[in-house]
Design goal:
The protein has nine helices and 21 strands. By secondary structure, it is α/β, with parallel strands linked by helices.
Length: 371
């Protein structure tokens, strides 16, 4: 049987964001509401046939202020409430939603219930808001079942009538109501008159169908000694060298041109090789909005591999950064770091892009030690 069970219980975790904002009458600026006020603007909640409870951050925040401590709070809240609820909806600002959804996907290993992020471009208290539909659809998808199991068993993002895998999302527009996209993975669900579920695109943890595998493991650690550098024509190599000489640096995401290309500069090679020799883990992602890194295509891309830079394949920048923070917190061993960064841990990589598949396709995930 497929559909929404009237008895499903969903926990809404309210962090802040535009969806819970109203305009201050004095300053004209947007200020946050608490969730009880948000729910008053969505009377349809009472008729959704879902039991909804809510918890909030002590002080709702703008998503620009989100940090790993907030991700840890979200992950531990989900874990602590896992047995009491059938699914979770996280209300979050759109600016860093892709980072938070990516981070939580790596922090929650063995997830077999939905954790769905949503928000809005327009405050929920105004007539044209997209917040009401986003919230209601996210709740209904969190309660959706297929063959008596949750249809969604991963961290996802609902926005603009689509449900996407969380670690595949990217905020593309500051103005469109379809602000978040999934450039390299199809939508999990397209929402129209009915839910059009793309079952082959859904993620399943190992042994999910028979449930004998270990339960949820929370990896709360996230190393923050990482950096992101986007190359540009004429970049001063001295600046890059000084950035990579930060003595605490443990990881770098390098955004390169096209399919992973960089200038054919001996100075650049020397800088990257020196950082690699010091134990800095470096990941190559493309600056392009769609596609991925293919080091086999051009010598300028293959050169980076020779400097110790790991191809990020078709990961988004958000996924590469949060995955790097996660993996660096689990081990100091360079080979293990490389193996985990190239493995498809939570569906963040398209299988044909995976350098070392180790049998992890769309229906499998690499196991990590618990924290």
């Amino acid at each position: 049987m497929t559909g929404v069970n009237d008895m499903k219980s969903i926990l809404v975790i309210y962090t802040g964001g535009t969806i819970g904002m109203v305009r201050d009458k004095v300053s004209g600026a947007l200020v946050p509401l608490d969730f009880s006020q948000v729910s008053r603007h969505v009377p349809e909640l009472a008729h959704a046939g879902i039991r909804v409870e809510a918890v909030s951050f002590d002080a709702p925040i703008d998503s620009s202020d989100v940090s790993p401590r907030h991700w840890r709070s979200l992950a531990t809240t989900v874990a602590e409430c896992m047995d009491r609820f059938d699914g979770f909806v996280v209300l979050h600002g759109t600016d860093t939603m892709a980072y938070s959804a990516s981070a939580l996907s790596f922090m929650l290993e063995g997830l077999r219930k939905p954790v769905i992020f949503t928000g809005s471009q327009l405050p929920i208290g105004i007539p044209r808001t997209d917040g009401r539909e986003n919230l209601l659809s996210a709740l209904m998808l969190a309660a959706h079942v297929t063959d008596d199991e949750p249809t969604i068993q991963e961290v996802a993002v609902y926005f603009g009538n689509h449900l996407f895998r969380g670690n595949r999302t990217h905020k593309e527009s500051a103005m469109s109501l379809n602000a978040l996209i999934s450039p390299n993975h199809p939508a999990l669900v397209e929402v129209g008159v009915e839910f059009q579920i793309n079952h082959p695109a859904l993620w399943r943890s190992p042994s999910s169908s028979s449930f004998p595998a270990p339960g949820l493991q929370v990896h709360a650690g996230m190393r923050q000694e990482v950096a992101w550098v986007s190359l540009f024509p004429g970049m001063p190599m001295d600046w890059l060298k000084r950035a990579l000489e930060w003595e605490d640096l443990r990881g770098l995401v390098l955004a390169t041109f096209g399919s992973g290309n960089a200038p054919t500069s001996q100075v650049l090679r020397d800088i990257l090789k020196e950082a690699s020799d010091r134990g800095v883990t470096m990941i190559n992602v493309t600056q392009c909005g769609h596609g991925g890194v293919h080091p086999e295509l051009y010598a300028t891309s293959h050169m980076l591999v020779g400097c110790g830079v790991i191809p990020g394949r078709d990961m988004t920048t958000e996924a590469a950064l949060t995955k790097l923070m996660h993996v660096l917190a689990t081990t100091d061993d360079p080979e293990t770091i490389r193996e985990r960064m190239t493995a498809n841990l939570r569906g963040e990589l398209t299988p044909h892009h995976v350098a070392h598949t180790q049998g992890h396709g769309p229906a499998g995930a690499a196991g990590l030690d618990g924290v």
